[in-house]
Amino acid sequence: TGHRAAIADLPTTEKEMTEVVVPSTIYVERMGSERAPLGAFAPRTEAAAAFARLWDETAARLKPITRKRH
Questions:
Q1: Burial (0-12, 13-18, 19+ Cβ within 10 Å), 49
Q2: Who contacts 58 (Cβ-Cβ below 8 Å, separation ≥6)?
Q3: What is the pTM of this model?
Q4: What is the mean pLDDT of the segment spanning 8-18?
Q5: b/e 17-30 (16+ beta carbons within 10 angstroms → b)
Q6: Rounded to 10 degrees, what is the CA torsion of 28, 34, 37, 41?
Q7: I want to staple 38 with a disulfide (CB 3.0 to 4.6 A). Which of 34, 48, 57, 58 is the partner?
Q8: Tell me: the pLDDT tens digits for 46-70?
Q9: CA-to-CA distance for 22 and 53, rounded, in angstroms?
């Protein structure tokens, strides 16, 4: 399908694309009803570990904010 082709091609066309995959699990679905991040109610799950890796990778790519002094 077009969706599968896009997923397969995206890492080759977008150099900033992550390799991290967050699995679609019941725990991910529960974040809405729990009104909490996955790490707060299911920290030892595969999905929580994937979100942690995703954040670590994202944080490493962020530029530090420089504040102006008055």
A1: middle
A2: 18
A3: 0.71
A4: 76
A5: eeeeebeeeebbee
A6: -90
A7: 48
A8: 999 999 999 999 998 887 777 777 6
A9: 9
